[in-house]
Design brief:
This protein is α/β, with parallel strands linked by helices and 260 residues long. It has one domain: 3-Layer(aba) Sandwich (Rossmann fold). 47% of the residues lie in helices and 16% in strands. Helix 3 packs parallel to helix 4, helix 4 packs parallel to helix 5 and helix 6 packs across helix 7. The longest helix is centred in the middle third of the chain and has 29 residues. The protein is globular.
Length: 260
């Protein structure tokens, strides 16, 4: 098992990506600490993991609150003894489908402010634990617009780029302590409600939205978009010791919609 005896925190574990990562981590032997805003979703995932022989506990955490994050990380560290992996899958609550020239400033800045605050707080407090043990992996997920000129996506691309910049800087500071920083960059998974919702905001006609999604998939080198399980499988590999030489980078999980 790739993550046997590893303790992993997943923030945003109730969402499509977070829950998929939780299942993949559990399958590879990790002990999970699932956190998010909606306890019912977390508990449902934890029950599923437990029924499959995994170990998962849940906590309601407001990732915008430094006190909430600090208390949660401290409680996990005390209970588990160490924190080996952090995966951050917290949503940005971005508004799309509106030209920037017509977008209220609050709608533009909200995802940027939420992403940078939640990512900084969760990474910072987990990193404090990892620095003491001189090992660990801190991961997040962004998307292609971090490096593209994409119209009508509001502050989403800016937020993704800000998070990637934060990850690079943290990698520079934490590398000497044996802590790795990895960013998973996805093209979006068609089997998550989030991607369907995004295309819906760009086109009110469901039939046209489905066609646009299919066109995007056909435009990749593999002729499809990555499933959320594929994204989670890559995250599992990056969290494992088999990726021990990787830090300060992003991993392209786009089926070739972007070529490095």
């Amino acid at each position: 098992m790739l993550l046997k005896s590893k303790n992993a925190i997943i923030y945003g574990a109730g969402g499509g990506v977070g829950s998929a990562v939780a299942r993949a981590f559990a399958r590879e032997g990790a002990r999970l600490f699932l956190a998010g805003r909606t306890l019912a979703k977390l508990e449902a995932i934890a029950r599923e993991i437990s029924a499959s022989g995994g170990i998962a506990s849940t906590a309601k955490v407001d990732a915008l609150s430094e006190r909430s994050v600090q208390r949660h990380v401290g409680a996990v560290a005390k209970q588990a003894g160490r924190i080996d992996v952090l995966f951050n899958a917290i949503g940005m609550e971005d508004v799309q489908g509106i030209p920037l020239l017509d977008m209220p400033v609050e709608d533009f800045t909200h995802p940027v402010m939420k992403a940078t605050r939640t990512q900084f707080l969760t990474a910072r407090w987990v990193a404090k634990q990892m620095v003491q043990q001189r090992s660990g992996v801190i991961m997040t997920i962004t998307a292609g617009p971090a490096r593209e000129a994409t119209p009508h996506i509001g502050g989403f691309g800016v937020a993704c780029e800000a998070v990637e910049g934060l990850w690079r800087n943290l990698a520079g500071e934490l590398g000497p302590y044996g802590v790795r920083l990895i960013c998973i960059r996805s093209a979006g998974s068609p089997d998550t409600p989030g991607l369907q919702g995004v295309f819906g905001t760009h086109d009110d006609d469901p039939a046209t939205s489905d066609t646009a999604l299919a066109d995007v998939a056909r435009g990749t080198l593999l002729g499809r978009l990555p499933s959320v399980a594929e994204v989670a499988n890559v995250a599992t590999m990056m969290a494992s010791d088999r990726a021990s030489a990787m830090t300060g980078t992003y991993v392209n999980v786009t089926c070739g919609s972007r070529v490095d």
